[in-house]
Each structure stands twice: as C-alpha cells, then as structure tokens.
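Handout, section 3.2

Students often ask what a structure token actually looks like in practice. Rather than define it abstractly, here is a full record for Flp/Fap pilin component. The first block is the sequence as you would receive it.
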Amino acid sequence: MTKLVSRFLKDESGATAIEYGLIAALISVALITGASALGGKLNVLFNNLSVTMNSAASKAPATVP
C-alpha cells in the first residue's frame, strides 16, 4: 500500500496538463484585454471621424444637379 501512495505522490503527469491549461487561460485573458483596449480606441477614432465628416458636410455648400 505504501508503494501505491508513494507512486501516486511522485506522479506528475497531471501537472503538465494543468500547466498547459493555466498557460492557455493566461493567453486568453491577454487576448481579451488587448481586444477590449483596441476596440475602445477604434470606437473613439470612428466617432471622431463621424463628427468631422458631419461637420464638413454641414459647412459644404449645397449643390443642385
């Protein structure tokens, strides 16, 4: 019985799977954080572009075809 317990305590095959799972989770968190930051910056950029275009369109003289 003691051999079985000592062999169980020395077995590290499950530790590798857990490590890979933790690495995958860390990469996922980094990607989500980066995508959120990029999405916020793109939102600000397109809102500014929209305001600029609307401002230019309201100042442009009206043309009649």
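Discussion prompt for tutorial groups: The chain has a mean pLDDT of 87. How would you have guessed this from the sequence alone?
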